[in-house]
Amino acid sequence: MANTKAYAATSADSGLAAYAIDRRELRADDVAIEIDYCGVCHSDLHTVENDWGGSKYPVVPGHEIIGRVTAVGSGVTHYKEGDMVGVGCMVDSCRTCSACESGLEQYCLDGSTMTYGGFDRHDGSITHGGYSERIVVSERFVVRIPENLDPASAAPILCAGITTYSPLKHFNVGKGHKVGVLGMGGLGHMGVKIAKALGAEVTIFTRSEAKVAEAKKQGADHVIISTDPEQMKAAKGSFDYLLDTIPVAHDLNPYLNCLSYDGTHILVGLLTPIEPAVQAGLLVTKRRVIAGSLIGGMPETQEVLDFCAEHDITCDVEMLDIRHINEAYERMKKGDVKYRFVIDMKTLKD
Ligand code: NDP
Ligand code: ZN
């Protein structure tokens, strides 16, 4: 009963193409959403191409979803038809463990259900994401989009925004801290804006001279060209935090060397083994820490939307016709996106 137009990958090398999926009838706590916009995250590409292993096909990616409520289940209390809402990276969790009870559903002890490529906890079907006309989601995993945010450029807050906001908040980053953001892509450029709004002094580490002027325009105080060993050496011991959004294995050692004593290197991008090996001496002699962080919980996802509305932060987006999604992925692989593709879902209906 395929009732919804979508775009899916059917194998790791198929690319994405039009594909029809089934969206369920509303359960009591469900919200049905007509999708207007969906951001294109590097995780979509990793999953389509099975970079992390375990992808379940067909994959309908997309976890930066914005749209309007078209119907609600009988038990829904927070949303009504017509509301502008968002769905991020999760659509369910056990809801009863200590992590869920603390609003940290992403760390659910039973494993949270991802927006795409997860298993629905009721019927075991594979979950499908936002490269589609509609989605049906339990209201606990829906957030409200503040009225003064432009919906298209707010979409990436649902993943790129929360993934950078959550660790910065967790580590209490603020005034007086020096923060380096590694990689100026979707996550990185949001990391700069959010860290600045939290009061930190922010440096972007990029491979690209061409991004220097834009990094400054987005609020970065300084830029370091990460491929220049002299610039990397000159930054020795300078930073309290590094927020690492680089999507592939890379040498952490030159970056660790840039941390002050007690500095923390926060991985959000790297989900494969760290290669080459980390020199333990770089950690031990300065009490440095390597940490990781996964998206953010539902209360914090609402918080970052409200924070962005208050500080007038949106994503720099390039609007995308879904029929050009495969070209967009190729550009993303080259780091050639300014700074997030957002699919206009009207193009799926044409
Ligand atoms: P983008 O492709 O938008 O940006 C990544 C940036 O990293 C690029 O723009 C580039 O910046 C830099 N980069 C890319 N390739 C290399 C390379 N080979 N060596 C060094 N630098 C490189 O990706 P996103 O921002 O969407 O995602 C970043 C990572 O974060 C992905 O791996 C994604 O899966 C992950 N992620 C993790 C989440 C979590 O919860 N932890 C949530 C969402 C995403 P520049 O050109 O400036 O060097
Ligand atoms: Zn993402």
TrEMBL record:
Keyword Transmembrane: no
Record-linked Gene3D superfamilies: Medium-chain alcohol dehydrogenases, catalytic domain, NAD(P)-binding Rossmann-like Domain
Record has Membrane as a keyword: no
Entries under SMART domains matching the protein: PKS_ER
Name of protein: Hydroxyacid dehydrogenase
Source organism (scientific name): Marinobacter fuscus
Family the UniProt entry places it in: Belongs to the zinc-containing alcohol dehydrogenase family.
PANTHER family assigned: ALDEHYDE REDUCTASE
InterPro entries according to UniProt: ADH-like_C, ADH-like_N, ADH_Zn_CS, CAD-like, ER, GroES-like_sf, NAD(P)-bd_dom_sf
A Pfam family the protein falls into: ADH_N
Keywords of this entry: Metal-binding, Oxidoreductase, Zinc
Required co-factors: Zn(2+)
